[in-house]
Every structure is written in C-alpha cells, then in structure tokens.
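MODEL INPUT / OUTPUT PAIR
PAIR INDEX: 1
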Amino acid sequence: MNTSTDRIERQILLKAPRARVWRALADAESFGDWFGVALKGKRFIAGEYTQGNITYPGYEHLVFEALVESVKPEHYLAFRWHPYAIDPDADYSKEPTTLVEFTLEEASDGTLLRVVESGFDRIPVERRSEAYRMNSGGWTEQMENIEKYVAAH
C-alpha cells in the first residue's frame, strides 16, 4: 500500500467550541448545508445508510450515499462511500468504498477538526487517480465550507 496515494488528510482549527463543531458534523441537516447535500430529516446512525441529492451546482443529478460506520458524540464520526462516483450510469455497488473519518480535539483557540479519507488503493485502477485527485481538492474546499458554516452558526 502506498500511503501517499491511499489516504487524504486535512485538518483545520475552527474557532468554535467542540459542541458547535460537532453539531455541524453530526447533525445530518447541518452537515448537508455545508457539505452540499440535501439531508433534510436525516440522521447519522451507525450501521445505517444515509442519502440525499447533491446540491453543489453542476452535480444536482447525483445522489450522496454513505454507510455510517461510527458516531462517538463530540469526538468521532466515520462513514464509507464510493469516492467521486459521478457517472449516473455506472454501478459502483461492487466496488470497494473508502473510509471517511472526522476527529475532533480540543485546542487552545477552539476545536481541531481532522478528516482522513483512506482506501484509495482498493479503488479500481481505471478510476483511482481521478477519484483521489478530485476528493483531495474536494476536502480542501470542504474544510473551508465547514469553517464558514461554523462561524455563521
């Protein structure tokens, strides 16, 4: 396994208490607001799927679907999904998923949020590099999105 292409890691210091950051992450509707997916009336429950239409311009025809792996209040949220699954005619169900992990830690100036997405080396080779590249840029943008969301809420 090549760790430089198997995982994406991002972190950001959010100038907000852990409880507020946790609500932005673990409340599905709040998550959807900053992440760009309509998860109205949804909850993140370990062992269950959650899904909703993507609201990001140009991707509205796609459905976000994730299997929630773990929810540890105010500390850890993890889900599995098919990375950069943007072809509406493709059947991704037989492909391995990547694991997305959010970890919260107290920091002197707020809350440190870390996100790690791992498992890219298991994605079919014909999609792997594009999925990695797109999700790498996507997580950079999502860290900015949650920072703005937490500051406004």
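PAIR INDEX: 2
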Amino acid sequence: MIVVSGTAEVQPDKRQQAIELFRRLTNETVKEDGNISYHFYIDIDKENVFRVFEQWQSQEALDAHFTTDHMAELNRELPKLIAAPPELTRYEIADSAPLPL
C-alpha cells in the first residue's frame, strides 16, 4: 500500500475557495480504481492549514491519479490559493493492522 500525507497552508482570504477545490478533488478521487481512502482535514491549531491523507493500493494507482482531470485542476488552481509550498510525503507500507484499544 502507498500512503501520501502532507499539508497545504492557504491564504486566509482564499480559505473557502481551497475548501471547495479540495472537496471537488476528494469527490472525484474516491471514485478512482486503486484508491483506498482520500481525505482532507483542517489543522486544529492552524485553521488555514489543511492536511491530506491518502491510501492507494499501488504505485500504479497513484501514478494514474496524477494524470486525472481533477489533479490537473488542483495543479492549476492551488498555486493561486496557497501561502506556502505544500509539503507531501509518500510512504510505502508493507503491513498495517488496527491498534488495540
């Protein structure tokens, strides 16, 4: 499994536009073959920082995601909204299991 996790800080006056962009991206991405999960979250300490957490069945599925129209929209629109460059990290996961509570 491939996991992508990261942050994007948006300009305060562009926050609502970013939410709408991330919502469109999420709604389309979850329909993709090979997507396990795809979510944006608002940082509880910094309301203009959005966190993304993605899970993919394979690198091939992630590569295909990068070629979609909704990713093209993100790449075109996000630079107009951000306050700092996004930070993303890719993880290759060999195994995962629920933590016992």
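PAIR 2 NOTE: The helical segments are 15-29, 59-65, 69-77.
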